[in-house]
C-alpha cells in the first residue's frame, strides 16, 4: 500500500473537534458541584471525591482537563480554582455565567438550521427569545462580566454626565446599565424603553434593587412605536442600533433621538466592534453567522457609518473608546454631544 504524503497536520482539525466537547465537560463539573466545593479552598483529589460522592479516578481525569484549560490549579496534590473559575463558575458569584455554560452544552445547537439558511431558507427572527426571565437574567449576568464596567468607566469620563438629571436607556432590558449609571450620579433619573414583556419582568425582578424608584419603564413595540419624551441629558443605547443600521433608517432614528435630547446632551452607544485578535475575531464571526442564520439582520455596526449619521443629525464632538478584547464581546463605546436641533 502506497501511503499519501501529508502536507498539513490533521491534529489541527482533531484538536478543534475535541475542544467542542469542553462545554459539556464543564457543565458536568458545574452540575456535580465541583466548582462550588472548591470555592475559597483547596482539596486533595480523595477529599474532593468524597465530598462530591464521585468516582475518584473519573474525578481525577476531569480535574486534569480543567487544569489544562486554566480553570483549575494543582499544587502538591491539592486542587483549587483559578480566579476565572471563582468569578464565573461558582453559583453564588454575582457574575456567574452558568446559564451560558448550560446553553452551550444542552439541547439543540444554534447552527442546527445553518444548512437550510445557506440554501436561502432563512427563518423569521423571533424576538420572543429575549423576553423570558431566564433570557433577561442571562443577558444581565453576561453584561456584568465586563461590558457594564467598561460603559460606566467611559460615561464617567464624559463631562456632561455628572450634571445630568434625566436619562433615556433605549432597549435597555431590565435596566441593568441604568442601575450602574444611577450609582455614579445621585441626581439622575432613568427612563428605560423596552418590549412590554421585558418591562413587566423588570418591575418584578428589580423592584427590591437600590434606586429602583429612580427608574421609569416604558413599553414599546418597535421603532414605529416609540415616543421618547424630551429633555434628556443622557441618551444611552446598547445593541439596538443593529436593527436600524441601514443609512436612511439610522438617520431617521437618530433624528428622533436628537428631538428627545437637550442641547449639549450626551449620546452614548455601545455595540460589538471588529476585533484584532484572531481568537476573539473568530468568536465574533461565529456570532454573526449564528444570528444571520436565525433571521436577525447583522450583529455589527460600522463606526464610520454611525459617525457620519450622527454628523448629519445634529451631533458632534465625537469620542470613541477602542474595544477591550478581554471582554467576551468587545464593545465599541462612542459618545457624541447634541450640537443643534434638526428638522
TrEMBL record:
<dbReference type="InterPro" id="IPR036388">
    <property type="entry name" value="WH-like_DNA-bd_sf"/>
</dbReference>
<dbReference type="Pfam" id="PF08100">
    <property type="entry name" value="Dimerisation"/>
</dbReference>
<protein>
    <recommendedName>
        <fullName>O-methyltransferase dimerisation domain-containing protein</fullName>
    </recommendedName>
</protein>
<dbReference type="GO" id="GO:0046983">
    <property type="term" value="F:protein dimerization activity"/>
</dbReference>
<dbReference type="InterPro" id="IPR036390">
    <property type="entry name" value="WH_DNA-bd_sf"/>
</dbReference>
<feature type="domain" description="O-methyltransferase dimerisation">
    <location>
        <begin position="16"/>
        <end position="91"/>
    </location>
</feature>
<dbReference type="InterPro" id="IPR012967">
    <property type="entry name" value="COMT_dimerisation"/>
</dbReference>
<dbReference type="InterPro" id="IPR029063">
    <property type="entry name" value="SAM-dependent_MTases_sf"/>
</dbReference>
Amino acid at each position: 500500500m502506497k501511503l499519501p504524503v501529508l502536507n498539513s497536520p490533521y491534529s489541527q482539525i482533531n484538536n478543534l473537534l475535541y475542544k467542542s466537547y469542553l462545554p459539556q465537560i464543564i457543565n458536568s463539573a458545574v452540575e456535580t458541584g465541583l466548582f462550588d466545593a472548591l470555592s475559597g479552598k483547596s482539596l486533595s483529589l480523595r477529599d474532593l471525591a468524597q465530598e462530591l460522592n464521585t468516582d475518584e479516578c473519573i474525578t481525577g481525569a476531569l480535574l486534569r482537563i480543567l487544569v489544562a484549560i486554566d480553570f483549575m490549579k494543582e499544587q502538591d496534590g491539592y486542587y483549587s480554582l483559578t480566579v476565572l473559575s471563582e468569578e464565573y463558575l461558582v453559583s453564588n458569584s454575582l457574575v456567574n455565567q452558568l446559564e451560558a455554560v448550560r446553553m452551550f452544552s444542552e439541547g439543540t445547537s444554534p447552527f442546527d438550521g445553518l444548512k437550510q439558511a445557506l440554501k436561502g431558507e432563512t427563518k423569521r427572527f423571533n424576538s420572543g427569545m429575549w423576553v423570558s426571565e431566564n433570557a433577561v437574567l442571562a443577558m444581565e449576568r453576561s453584561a456584568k462580566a465586563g461590558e457594564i464596567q467598561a460603559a460606566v468607566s467611559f460615561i464617567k469620563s464624559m463631562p456632561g454626565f455628572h450634571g445630568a438629571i434625566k436619562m433615556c436607556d433605549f432597549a435597555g432590558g431590565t435596566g441593568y446599565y441604568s442601575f450602574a449609571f444611577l450609582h455614579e450620579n445621585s441626581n439622575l433619573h432613568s427612563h428605560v424603553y423596552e418590549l412590554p414583556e421585558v418591562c413587566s419582568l423588570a418591575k418584578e425582578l428589580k423592584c427590591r434593587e437600590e434606586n429602583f424608584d429612580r427608574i421609569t419603564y416604558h413599553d414599546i413595540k418597535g421603532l414605529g412605536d416609540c415616543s421618547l419624551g424630551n429633555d434628556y441629558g443622557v441618551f444611552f443605547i446598547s445593541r439596538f442600533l443593529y436593527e436600524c443600521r441601514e443609512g436612511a433608517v439610522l438617520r431617521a432614528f437618530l433624528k428622533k433621538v436628537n428631538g428627545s435630547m437637550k442641547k449639549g446632551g450626551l449620546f452614548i452607544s455601545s455595540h460589538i466592534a471588529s476585533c484584532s485578535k484572531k481568537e476573539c475575531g473568530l468568536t465574533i464571526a461565529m456570532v454573526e453567522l449564528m444570528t444571520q442564520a436565525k433571521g436577525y439582520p447583522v450583529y455589527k455596526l460600522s463606526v464610520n457609518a454611525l459617525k457620519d449619521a450622527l454628523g448629519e443629525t445634529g451631533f458632534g464632538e465625537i469620542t470613541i473608546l477602542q474595544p477591550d478584547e478581554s471582554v467576551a464581546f468587545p464593545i465599541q463605546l462612542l459618545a457624541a454631544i447634541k450640537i443643534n436641533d434638526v428638522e
